[in-house]
Amino acid sequence: MRLLASSLLALACASASLTASAQSAGVKTMDGILVDAKGMTVYTFDKDTANSGKSVCNGPCAKLWPPVAPMGMPAAPYSTVTRDDGSAQLAYQGKPLYLYEADKKPGERTGDNFKDIWHVVKP
After folding, report:
1. Going by C-beta distance under 8 Å and a sequence separation of 6 or more, which residues neighbour residue 76?
2. pLDDT tens-digit profile of 13-64?
3. Which end of the chain is less congested by CB atoms within 10 angstroms, N or C?
4. pTM across the whole model
């Protein structure tokens, strides 16, 4: 019984820690996916390489898929990458994060699986 109670406590602490680090990064989990502070769905791009420290979505791509800016100092599993223009972009598990211009209301996920290379983030 004690082992079960301590396991549940450890799980609750880990969950609270992930939630706290997400909120300090400027994103949160809602309905099983990451969203920004306004509730807009957050995406990753398959052409980005995890832990490369950069985004390959620049220029016209970044107009359609705006990068998520970090809010404060993110903690693992969040980090930042440096964009070609020198600005910082929030990353999750080393993958840069984006919004989708066509999503107009919080909770919309119209960019999920777009061209089979854009995906919602499920932490």
Report:
1. 21
2. 444 444 445 555 789 999 999 999 999 999 999 999 999 999 999 999 999 9
3. N
4. 0.81
